[in-house]
């Protein structure tokens, strides 16, 4: 059935903006869009946006849904002096305590957070070493309940020994072959990071990934641990080591890229793949600042993720700018065209993963749309749309009122549809209580 959105301020991050616009949807696609009142479409369901801003759904290029039950977690000991100790004292304790039920519940809570942040597609990196087999299917079910698109992978690592490592590779293979709704799920070969992976692990993961045509989703030089380990054990820097296994390639997601040399940046620009920048997580872990302007100057593609630090990609984008200003002592660093390039790369990644055109308000594009609860208090045009989204998000906390995924409302007037959110959150709270007891 056709749907019509009318009375909307319609815009996207590729230069489209109509002050009083309309969108006609047919099935899961945009059929028509333009300025002025909507045409008469017999039998169509009409959504009057009443002057609110309507944009395509956002994309998160790096998430950790499994971290969703960590909010408020009481830790007996938390006095890390390095990034490695943050992993040991918090994340590696939490992920080992996850069972399949907790994976599912964390997936639901994380997916709801993304929905309520206007994110309709995400790339997740998952770890649950005591419950590996079937964990990606639990996440798939959780995301299906909430109604989002997701590219999933399991984190292969040697930190739990060879059996767990092999089970991690196998989970990636199993999920890549699993039946799923086309356009809603995709997958990568997940790798933790060079410093927890032996040559044997990288070789085995590569064989499996190349057999299936999968790109990699891997943390790259997040903290100093990664280059120190690669230089000490292998005599090369982190990106150079990964390149020995052909991991730097088109379709790979290279997360962070902070402790990288000029030679590594040249290598990244030659090999392809996308670096994903996660500024809030980087600041929280005190791991340094990714050289995003230098990457862009070398032609490296850069996208934006949250790294499990919430799901609000608009605040992440603004933080990318604030961090760039702060680190460079230059308030002109990471201007609008560069920040837009990051957000546009998120859409390019999603288009490639899900095989559907995403991110523009144009005929043929997928009908993933957000009606923001936002009527701008100052003039808005194509050139200021990014500024309205970023500063509206930070000053007024603008949130979605209605979210459509493939033309189907998943959030309607602030209420999650087809899903008992209250019951799901109560079950998640109970799962968190049990999870925390196991840590
Ligand atoms: Zn991460």
Secondary structure blueprint with pairings:
Blueprint: E1 2-11, E2 17-26, E3 29-35, E4 45-48, E5 53-56, E6 58-63, H1 83-97, H2 100-115, E7 119-124, H3 135-146, E8 149-152, H4 162-177, E9 185-187, E10 189-193, H5 199-212, E11 216-220, H6 225-234, H7 238-244, E12 253-256, H8 262-271, E13 274-277, H9 279-285, H10 292-297, E14 301-304, H11 313-328, H12 336-354, E15 369-372, H13 385-396, E16 400-405, E17 408-412, E18 415-416, H14 421-437
Parallel strand pairs: 1-4, 1-5, 6-7, 7-8, 8-9, 10-11, 11-12, 12-13, 13-14
Antiparallel strand pairs: 1-2, 2-3, 5-15, 15-16, 16-17, 17-18
Helix pairs in contact: 2-3, 2-14, 4-5, 11-13
Bound molecules: zinc ion.
Primary descriptors:
439 residues; alpha/beta; Urease, subunit C, domain 1; TIM Barrel; 2 domains; five-stranded parallel sheet
> What is the CATH architecture assignment of the largest domain?
Alpha-Beta Barrel
Shape type: globular
What is the SS-derived class?
alpha/beta
- Unreliable spans are none
Cα distance spanning the termini: 50 Å
User: What compounds sit in this structure?
Assistant: zinc ion
CATH topology of the largest domain: TIM Barrel
Summed up, the helix count is: 14
Strand content: 15-25%
CATH homology-level superfamily of the largest domain: Metal-dependent hydrolases
Q: How many DSSP E strands?
A: 18
Helix content: 40-55%
Q: Radius of gyration in whole Å, from Cα?
A: 21 Å
| CATH class membership of the largest domain | Alpha Beta
What can be said about the biggest beta sheet? 9 strands, mixed
Number of domains: 2
Average residue-wise pLDDT = 96
